[in-house]
Amino acid sequence: MTRLIALLLAVALLALGVTGWQWKVARDDLTSAQRIIGTLSAGIESRDRAIARLDADARASQKREAELRLMQGRASTAALNREMTIQRETDANPILRDWSAAALPDDVIRLHARPAFASARDYLDWVSARDKLPGAGKQP
Questions:
Q1: Phi, psi angle pair for 20, to nearest 5°
Q2: So what's the pLDDT on residue 96?
Q3: Distance between CA 88 and CA 82 in Å, rounded?
Q4: What domain count does the chain have?
Q5: Domain contains 138
Q6: What is the span of the domain harbouring residue 11?
Q7: DSSP labels for the chain?
Q8: Are 126 and 117 within 8 A, CB to CB?
Q9: Do the beta carbons of residue 123 and residue 117 sit within 8 Å?
Q10: How far from chain centre, in Å, is Cα 59?
Q11: Is there a domain that residue 9 lies in?
């Protein structure tokens, strides 16, 4: 009988030891899981703040774009009105109409002529080679 009680006591102690070990493993797993949850929660909060900031930036950009489009529309309307006024004035005044229909002088055409440049050096060479202005008091 003492053997049986000793055996039962040994089994109970073994079961208690296994249960304690399982409790420690479960507690370690819980601590690790809570740490992971904290890290993930911080990441989610950071992501949510970034999303909110980007959303606010997008709304501000949309507002600025709408304002710019409105300004562009107004500028286009003003340019069209100005062009129509110029055209009306040109059509109404025969002297102005003849002047605007005439060809530009050769000197003006030469000022507007520019070759295609492959590099900044080509442009500098072209500028340097062009006709230079005469000195003060000298005839061209």
A1: -60, -40
A2: 84
A3: 10
A4: 1
A5: no
A6: 2-129
A7: -HHHHHHHHHHHHHHHHHHHHHHHHHHHHHHHHHHHHHHHHHHHHHHHHHHHHHHHHHHHHHHHHHHHHHHHHHHHHHHHHHHHHHHHHHHH-HHHHHHHHSPPPHHHHHHH-----SSHHHHHHHHHHSPPPPPTT---
A8: yes
A9: yes
A10: 14
A11: yes
Q: Which residues of the chain have pLDDT under 50?
A: none
Question: Does 112 fall in a domain?
Answer: yes
Residue 78 has a pLDDT of 95
- What is the per-residue pLDDT across 59-97, written as a single tens digit (0 to 9) for each? 999 999 999 999 999 999 999 999 999 899 888 988 888
Q: Is residue 139 part of a domain?
A: no
> What CA–CA distance (Å, rounded) separates 63 from 138?
59
Length of the chain: 140
